[in-house]
Amino acid sequence: MQIRxxxxxxxxxxxLDPRTSLLDALRHHLGxxxxxxxxxxxxxxxxTVLMDGRRINACLxxxxxxxxxxxxxxxxxxxxxxxxxxxxxxxxxxxxxCGYCTPGQICSATGMLEEIAAGWPSHVSxxxxxxxxxxxxxxxxxxxxxxCRCAAYTHIVAAIQQAAMAGSQREDAA
Amino acid sequence: MREFTYLRxxxxxDVPAGATIIAGxxxxxxxxxxxVMAPDALVDIxxxxxxxxxxxxxxxxxGALVRNSDLAADPVVRRDYPVLSRALLAGASGxxxxxxxxxxxLMQRTRCPYFYDRRMACNKRDPGTGCAAQGGVTxxxxxxxxxxxxxxxxxxxxxxxLLALDxxxxxxxxxxxxxxxxxxxxxxxETPHVETVLKPGEVxxxxxxxxxxGGEQRYRKVRDRASYAFALVSIAAVIRMEQGQISHAALxxxxxxAKPWRDxxxxxxxxxREPSDALFAQAADILLKPARAFGDHAFKIPLLRRxxxxxxxxxxxxxxxx
Lengths: 174, 322
Ligand SMILES: Cc1cc2nc3c(=O)[nH]c(=O)nc-3n(C[C@H](O)[C@H](O)[C@H](O)COP(=O)(O)OP(=O)(O)OC[C@H]3O[C@@H](n4cnc5c(N)ncnc54)[C@H](O)[C@@H]3O)c2cc1C
Ligand code: SF4
Ligand code: FES
Ligand code: FES
What we know:
The complex is a heterodimer of chains A (about 170) and B (about 325).
Chain A: E1 2-7, E2 10-15, H1 22-29, E3 48-51, E4 54-57, E5 70-72, H2 74-77, H3 85-92, H4 102-117, H5 136-142, H6 153-173
Parallel strand pairs in A: 1-5
Antiparallel strand pairs in A: 1-2, 3-4, 3-5
Chain B: E1 5-8, E2 20-22, H1 28-33, E3 41-44, E4 53-56, E5 59-63, H2 68-73, H3 75-80, H4 82-89, H5 94-99, H6 102-107, H7 113-116, H8 158-164, E6 168-172, E7 177-180, E8 203-209, E9 216-222, E10 233-242, E11 245-254, E12 261-262, H9 264-268, H10 277-288, H11 300-316
Parallel strand pairs in B: 1-3, 2-3
Antiparallel strand pairs in B: 4-5, 5-8, 6-7, 6-8, 9-10, 10-11, 11-12
Helix pairs in contact in B: 4-8, 10-11
Bound molecules: flavin-adenine dinucleotide (FAD), iron/sulfur cluster (SF4) and FE2/S2 (inorganic) cluster (FES) (2 copies).
Protein name (chain B): Xanthine dehydrogenase family protein subunit M
Pfam families (chain B): CO_deh_flav_C, FAD_binding_5
Organism (chain B): Paracoccus aerius
């Protein structure tokens, strides 16, 4: 079937089998191989992309259902000479070993920090009203949908915390 | 995955009786990839106007397409129905909650590993073939309301809180109707493949909640990992106290039966009484009287008892005496 996907600001017209997941459409049809396939069943988070700014699992989304939303992949967050703040922090903190989970971690963290900024509570929040600080416990809970086989978790949390703090300082200054 | 035709519905009337509804897709696509479910036709309902949370007869109406994350973060839900926010936040992951819908969450299927594995006998997947779980690994299986045919559990969290809040499911179709959530999921009996009262051609359009009852609200989930794991047992509790006595007690249990479980007798024994461990033990005795374990999940019976005792102590402000 004919579908139009909007990815990283560009529109793409594709002819796809309705069974194609958004993940396979990105990787196999658009050559955007930054988004990874770990489990293909919603369990690992390697395929995390942003859909209208919200983090989702591309492996459990049909491409044909995603034709009127804006999709952002890791390639759309930053480039090697213009890294996103989170990409920079992952480098600075060694937030990876093999790197396979990293695009999903960074896309997920990008969406997650927006959720904290919007005042969304989490399972570990003491109260439901907020505001919520990006504490270690909050980040670990909110990022539990992203597994890291290399167990780089300590550095991943540190990178995200640093980005969260830098982000709120930028807001204070503005 | 088997081939299917894809259709997008623009109104509830567009939903053909023979097609399988897809909303967030997080359970259906998982099962379709494994060919545990193999629908010929999918109807995408995500463009229907069912994504609002709005006041309803002093309570709330939650559209079937409201995403789990939006529902958990809704200011009115957080303030008036905190047990619902807590249950949602205890389920799945941030990404999945952004996709999962209210209707799909109610309809999610069991996580019994034998149901997922097509090489195994399973009366739920293939009626009449047997039940490979019995005698197998049953960590997540039922201790209440099971049958010889099937010992699977309903795995969700949200519905457990909705049950404690006396939610009602709104259904559209040839004959629109409303069904209390307590009557929506079915016990396996002889027909474990029939899981809810929903009929082909019917669509869940929303869930309503009665006016808030206040009180202390808790959702306590016990699982093998601290996050991102299904419940071994869970409890949604809404407890109100007046002059030192329990005046309202709603207790719903997850991970223990094919439906979110509630026991009116276990609640009734608490009413008008002062909280005490002896009283809570009485409620647990009533709840667990019909409990039966079919294998290596016998631990769930004492686990549910202890979890209930701890939840009631917490919600009534009683210090642990043991
Ligand atoms: C790794 C993983 C971990 C998870 N952990 C948890 C957890 O801890 N707790 C928990 O509660 N859940 C958990 N889930 C399950 C998740 O919450 C469900 O998959 C989700 O809620 C289903 O909603 P959906 O909109 O994606 O449904 P879909 O997958 O779109 O549909 C599910 C079923 O509902 C039917 N359906 C959907 N909408 C309607 C409607 N309006 N009317 C009639 N029928 C409808 C579909 O036909 C289908 O049969 C987990 C899932 C995964 C993949
Ligand atoms: S417990 Fe139910 S779902 Fe699991 S194998 Fe037996 S019949 Fe199938
Ligand atoms: S590949 Fe999508 S969650 Fe693992
Ligand atoms: S860095 Fe190897 S999986 Fe996370």
